[in-house]
Amino acid sequence: MASVLIALGGNVGDVRATFAKAIPMICGMTQAALTARSSDYATPPWGDEQQDRFINACIEIDTGLDPHALLFVLHRIEAKFGRDRKSERRWGPRPLDLDILTYDDVRFEKPGLTLPHPRLFERAFVLVPLAEIAPDRWIAGRTPSAVLADLNTTGIERLPPLT
Asked: Does the pTM exceed 0.70?
């Protein structure tokens, strides 16, 4: 089994309800065990700033799927929630975005998948929830908490748990 960190994000529709449905779907379709889930965070848009705020979270799962099979399943789940990767604009609005951040300690770069995620350490909106569940996990020689200490987290706010 591989320990995998996955980022979840979205800003179209009821994103928190989408997460509540998508996480069990991820576990079921990947035959994975959920080992950790961060809080949900409201975050400013990144890249294309002329859109609604995002909701972001991170999960950790244990799965036997290889990285490419996992990515295929995650893209299918995004599509079930209305994401159309072929016609959307880069960094634009989306109902659900699922990114593999790490897959054990695997490092590789192939078309369509780079591990660890190539922009992981640039994005406070990913590192804040990631640092909640895996603050001291070594990823490419760094830890989320150490990298986060040097990033601007203005506008990122932890949301209260859903009741």
From this structure: yes
CATH top-level class of 2-158: alpha beta
pLDDT digits (tens, 9 = 90+) for 23-69: 999 999 999 999 999 999 999 987 666 788 999 999 999 999 999 99
CA geometry: angle at 60 spanning 84 and 76, to 5°? 20
Q: Please give the Cα distance from 132 to 1 (Å, whole number).
A: 23
Identify whether the C-beta of residue 104 lies closer than 8 Å to the C-beta of residue 98.
Answer: no
Catalytic residues: 83, 94, 97, 99
Domain boundaries, the chain: 2-158
What's the Cα-to-Cα distance from 133 to each of 19, 37, 75, rounded to whole Å?
16, 7, 23
Between helices 15-29 and 67-80, what is the axis angle to 10°? 140
Place of tokens 């699922």: 98
Which residues lie closer than 8 Å to 28 by C-beta, 6 or more apart?
none
Token pair of 66, please?
């290889």
Per-residue pLDDT tens for 73-119?
999 999 999 877 777 667 668 899 999 999 999 999 988 899 999 99
Tens of pLDDT, residues 4-23: 999 999 999 999 999 999 99
